[in-house]
């Protein structure tokens, strides 16, 4: 077994590998850029080596710097994680020349499967089902348009060297093919240094289901079941689960056997994933093979009990697989939610900044469930514009799918993240969505269910009563503490008013308080909208998580103080509320509504990012839909288009500018 390995990666996956290596008694070496000098993976590793500036192209993507770090520390092997150099055959070959083991497949398999065009040709030759398409190099937009017409719309334009949803576009007509071709090429060149793209038929109502395989150097290969990865946004996975609620045992076996056949055909040696598109009739088509550890591997580990990182390390050492296909059993259900630094209320645009609070739910058993959180950050860490926006992967396991979903909902309700915009509100709302809970999924789920973007779940009447009860309980406990300050001029009378009103949005909820004990733990008996409720809670001022029981129902919500009230986040709902006396409520109804400033004649930067291009100039007349500017954030290009016919009066930014959220890019007449 290796004595020391180097992890050529950062963030949560570097931390994940370090945990397994530590358990196996293997020393670890971390590498870090300027931006990651104080990162968690650097702190966790036994040694750490600085490899360059913040930009990945000058640090994590420079093979020579990784190899030099191995020489410097005496690392015998390199685990690449995912992304960066994990699927670059030249890196494997360079390591081999230095006598350093690559913890992953051999270059032959990476070359055969790492290029999407070549992998489909190889799969066709191996008689693996593939999606109809054009697999040769496409020269220009006109060529792309001609090919798409021959295949038939809709089509998928994809970067040959792509991954993570970058360099990928769906086109429903010739115009979208031309624009998508140029955007896909540009993103592919920026992200992967390779601007080749190909086109294939887009399967309507598709599911994205992938098979995990393990193979050693002795001809042994097996599959570990499947992962359902259909919940995607902009072709980027958001939520994954294992097993799939769609597959039957016959289809699972057929997909697994085909995945194993493909892995054997390329002499695969390591953990790998064969991805399939599955249509509504359970017909499946080869999509690609990822010759590395997948982001979503934890759900497979949770349902099989197999540590995939440990298996990769053992295989790289030349050991035989100790598992046989008949040993693989899928136990229970696991779900993974990817926590991204992105604003769901701004169409999921990237967010950067410092984590002023970061407090994940406790890992380990929780009732029938198990909670796991793979993360690479701590409170106080900075989410940088240089890397992927993923902050953590929250996973739950339970005996059944519904129990795993409910455990995920509770865990999300208690996951505290402040300082950046994040997608927890969306993930929490998704866990309540009927279609998701029923397992009626497709890769178009988010676009179909949230066509106008995401907004918080609107509370129903029962939810509003619970939110009003929390608001009043928080206010009574807060007032009780304030009223007993030692230097208060007028002592507290000890009497709690029986009449209250809670404002949520524009609605006022009268509350009759029957009994009250306002020193934590509180017990309140109240009537709201004709409903009698008993509330119990040990919440104290300063705590973000409000835990209690209302009307016999366990409630975990997040409460944060805002001006004259609180903001409550609970199960995908987010409301601002205020508890007050009836007299104050009467006056509150008379207050004028403050109108926001008019920015209709400005183009504001929707997220922190780099200006890739300014496509108009002062005095230019622009038609609806024309491109005004392109801003890049976290490796994704965002095209800003005119929402109406207009005339540009001033341009306030230029190519290369780094802009903050709501910075003025240009103004209109």
Automatic annotation (TrEMBL):
Record key words, sorted:
ATP-binding, Biotin, Ligase, Lipid degradation, Lipid metabolism, Magnesium, Manganese, Metal-binding, Nucleotide-binding
Looking at its record, which EC class is this enzyme?
Answer: ligase
EC number(s)? 6.4.1.3
Cofactor(s) needed by this chain: biotin
Instruction: Read off the SUPFAM superfamilies from this record.
Output: Glutathione synthetase ATP-binding domain-like, PreATP-grasp domain, Rudiment single hybrid motif, Single hybrid motif
List the catalysed reactions. propanoyl-CoA + hydrogencarbonate + ATP = (S)-methylmalonyl-CoA + ADP + phosphate + H(+)
Entry-linked Pfam families: Biotin_carb_C, Biotin_carb_N, Biotin_lipoyl, CPSase_L_D2, PCC_BT
SMART domains of this UniProt entry? Biotin_carb_C
Enumerate the spans annotated as Biotin carboxylation domain. Answer: 1-451
Query: Which parts of the sequence belong to the Lipoyl-binding domain?
Result: 590-669
Which pathway does UniProt place it in?
Answer: Metabolic intermediate metabolism; propanoyl-CoA degradation; succinyl-CoA from propanoyl-CoA: step 1/3
Q: Tell me the ranges covered by the ATP-grasp domain, including all copies.
A: 120-317
NCBIfam families this protein is in? PRK08591.1
Q: What is this protein called?
A: propionyl-CoA carboxylase
Q: Which organism is it from?
A: Phyllobacterium phragmitis
